[in-house]
Amino acid sequence: KGILKEASLMDLTEVTKFAARYAKAWCSQDPETVAAFYAEHGSLSVNGGPPAIGRQAIANVARGFMSAFPDMKVTMDDLVRKPHEPYGTVFHWTLTGTNTGPGGTGKRVRISGYELWQLDEDGLIRDSKGHFDAAEYERQVLHGVVDWQDRVCATATYKRGGSASQRRHSR
């Protein structure tokens, strides 16, 4: 049998453990590890795009992200179970990494999103519909993310009336 019990009877604890291992797989830099969470003919679509069907195609999607972000970390933010709905599991995640892969910009990215999962009777992902803010992702790839520490420093500088250098030159 698969990793989990029959999809309609899965326990929240089991699904949560599965989702945590899935997030860890995205951090592994091994695309086949991600693909192993999918049924043999499972599918993954991102932001309504054409689905990657089958483990090899899913591994190729994962490989693209892993190549673009060699230091990529994916964390599980939340997991919502709605077992009586066709896509009864909602996996919320955050991806952080630096775009240093081939042709990369060197900019840090921190983007959150979610996947709607349809699990099969073996407890593998039959279909995943991934969603994230593509415009914000592209902005961050080009310009980087503003971390909360940067915002705090910028706010503190603004409240003091500019940087120390600006205050020295305005006297």
Q: Quick summary of this structure?
A:
The protein has a six-stranded mixed beta sheet. With 171 residues, the protein is of the alpha+beta class. A hairpin with a 5-residue loop joins strand 5 (108-119) and strand 6.
Which features would summarize this protein structure in a list?
single chain, 171 residues, alpha+beta, 6-stranded mixed β-sheet, 6 helices, 36% helix, globular, disordered N terminus, disordered C terminus
Report mean pLDDT, rounded to a whole number. Answer: 86
Shape: globular
Specify the structural class: alpha+beta
Poorly predicted runs = 1-9, 151-158, 163-171
The number of helices is 6
Enumerate the strands of the largest sheet in spatial order, edge to edge or round the barrel.
2-1-6-5-4-3
Q: Helicity level, as a percent range?
A: 25-40%
Notes on the protein architecture:
The protein is an alpha+beta fold and 171 residues long. The protein has six helices and six strands; from the N terminus they run ααββαββββααα. It has a six-stranded mixed beta sheet. A hairpin with a 5-residue loop joins strand 1 (38-46) and strand 2 (52-53). It is globular, with a radius of gyration of 20 Å. 23% of the residues are buried.
Task: Give the helices and strands, then pairings.
Blueprint: H1 12-26, H2 31-35, E1 38-46, E2 52-53, H3 55-68, E3 73-81, E4 89-98, E5 108-119, E6 125-132, H4 134-143, H5 148-159, H6 164-169
Parallel strand pairs: 1-6
Antiparallel strand pairs: 1-2, 3-4, 4-5, 5-6
